[in-house]
Design brief:
Elements (H helix, E strand, L loop, with lengths): L2 H30 L1 H24 L3 H7 L7 H20 L1 H22 L11 H16 L4
Helix pairs in contact: 1-2, 1-4, 1-5, 2-4, 4-5, 5-6
């Protein structure tokens, strides 16, 4: 499997997993509390990542390497915590489909802005009308998913 095919397959799997994550975190947050569910999920993620580093790289030196990068590159962890907190809170209140739709619409809007202006060192990719139309349609669909 080529790198592009593997990346596409992983993106589809992550999309599917993201919806399952909303449902699971919604239930866990209802049972133990939103912050408690966030903390537990973060712990599980940290343990899995540390084990993966040890198994694949035979070292935990990746943690030290990360600390020597520009400060703004470390914001991914903050974004991840915000996402998991939000899906845990929003899922039981507005539903899994609405939470996922709004999350994806927001991701597409920000992704298009990052591509358009080459933010965070990304390549600049122009935004043409079909892309804008797709984002607008998804945003409209996300808004409609809020209707019960």
């Amino acid at each position: 499997m080529s790198g592009g095919a593997l990346a596409t397959t992983l993106a589809v799997l992550a999309g599917l997993a993201g919806s399952v994550q909303v449902a699971l975190m919604s239930r866990l947050g209802d049972r133990i509390g939103v912050l408690e569910a966030l903390a537990f999920s973060t712990l599980v993620t940290a343990v899995i990542a540390a084990l993966a580093l040890v198994v694949v790289r035979h070292s935990l030196s990746g943690y030290a390497a990360a600390l020597h990068q520009p400060w703004w590159m470390l914001g991914g962890g903050v974004m991840g915590a915000l996402i998991v907190f939000t899906i845990t809170y929003a899922g039981p209140r507005i539903g899994v489909a609405a939470t996922v739709g709004i999350l994806i619409a927001g991701q597409l809007v920000m992704g298009a802005a990052i591509d358009r202006w080459g933010l965070f060192g990304s390549d600049r990719i122009p935004i043409h009308w079909p892309r804008l139309l797709g984002i607008a349609l998804l945003a409209a669909g996300a808004a409609l998913s809020l209707k019960k």
